[in-house]
DNA sequence: TGTTATGGTTCGGTTACCTCA
DNA sequence: TATGAGGTAACCGAACCATAA
């Protein structure tokens, strides 16, 4: 590894990079020549092992497109593929390797942002739902106190709830199967359906209690530990 | 068979460079 | 013209794995 890096530093392959940099600059500058100094000039002046310790070399659109295609096919490369791709693009294998490393990092970062946004929205929805349910509970308790009657068993049409203490998610046991096995004495309410969105695959590591079905009537969590449930009241 | 050294790869974090507003 | 922000190529160190001695 160290040896490879040393080799890379010693051999700074101007051939593979001069064209890319100048090409990219021409594309971006619009006029084609802004009078700015090009990397090719630097390469000629500094040469391999010159004073410039690190050269920033833009890839051309064509090179990027090919790399993107390969990345879509597989996000990692074996040594043979790396060599072949480098030869095809006129780059050093190390450049191809670095490009794939950075590309993987970008992909992961983007996915993390998407996941984060999704969880944020989901949390907001649950918060709203929680507020609404608490209000409903207060109303029912007030009603019960007003009638001052003994405990009335809930009508069959009412819904049984359970909530996961770790993520505060509510299970609706009257709407299809639930993996919750929390016992008895569940509270009752008239409107309890928490709509479940389809879950992004990448979120699977975040919360085991995520709804696994998009249908609003399938509030089924994939918890492997149903004891996480508790009574709502 | 278990241990150790070595080489290769990937990843997370960081730096340095380039472009543009 | 100077400058700050954003994008990204390149680097570094750590961790992991496979293989040979």
From TrEMBL:
Localization annotation: Nucleus
Gene3D superfamilies tied to this protein: Homeodomain-like
Basic and acidic residues: bias regions: 1-12
Biased composition (Low complexity): 13-22
Sample GO molecular function, one term: sequence-specific DNA binding
Name under which the protein is recorded: Homeobox-leucine zipper protein HOX2-like protein
Chief subcellular location: nucleus
PANTHER family on file: HOMEOBOX-LEUCINE ZIPPER PROTEIN HAT14 (PTHR45714), HOMEOBOX-LEUCINE ZIPPER PROTEIN HAT4 (PTHR45714:SF88)
DNA-binding region: 52-111
Alphabetic keyword roster: DNA-binding, Homeobox, Nucleus, Transcription, Transcription regulation
Domain Homeobox: from-to ranges: 50-110
Protein origin, superkingdom: Eukaryota
Annotated region described as Disordered, given as residue ranges: 1-56
Organism per entry: Carex littledalei
Cellular component GO terms, alphabetical: nucleus
Protein family according to the UniProt entry: Belongs to the HD-ZIP homeobox family. Class II subfamily.
A Pfam short name: HD-ZIP_N
